[in-house]
Amino acid sequence: MRPPEDDVLLRDMLDHARRAVTAVAEKERGDLESDFILAAALERFIEVIGEAANKISPATKASAPQIPWREIIGMRNRLVHGYASVDHSIVWDVVSGDLVVILEVLEELVSD
Predict the structure, then answer these.
(1) Are 73 and 16 within 8 A, CB to CB?
(2) What CA dihedral angle connects 15, 16, 19 and 25, to 10 degrees?
(3) By CB neighbour count within 10 A (0-12 exposed, 13-18 middle, 19+ buried), where does 84 fall?
(4) Residue in 70, 8, 16, 82 with CA at minimum distance from that of residue 46
């Protein structure tokens, strides 16, 4: 059984991943260069996902090895501490590719 706090954190991850994926629906990579609000929103969604991931218990992380926990947390750290040099191509790839896959796993974890 998972700690109750982990359920809240997993839900936060799921909600923000959904928001990010929804935000890029019908968008193109180039939109990140012209739409600074979209870029800032995606960065914030990824930051929240990473912050929540960092607080999840080791036992819950171990129960979902298909989630790249360290990479998610590292991405959050890069966005927060390296905000002046964010690579929008990486942000786009994370949201349009990686989060779509992670969403499926998060949905299963949250529904358990």
Answers:
(1) no
(2) -120
(3) exposed
(4) 16
Nearest to 106 by CA among 23, 10, 21, 18: 10
Query: Which residues form the domain of 59?
Result: 4-111
Pairwise CA distance, residues 94 & 112, whole Å: 25
Alpha-carbon span 9 to 85, nearest angstrom: 28
The number of domains in the chain is 1
Amino acid at 58: P
Confidence of residue 97 (pLDDT cuts 50, 70, 90): very high
Strand, helix or coil for residue 2: coil
Query: How does pLDDT run across 11-42, given as a tens digit for each residue?
Result: 999 999 999 999 999 999 999 999 999 999 99
Question: Position of tokens 């990486």?
Answer: 90
Q: How far is residue 27's CA from residue 81's CA, in Å, rounded to a whole number? A: 27
Indicate the SS3 state at residue 3. coil
**Separation of alpha carbons 82 and 25, rounded Å:** 26
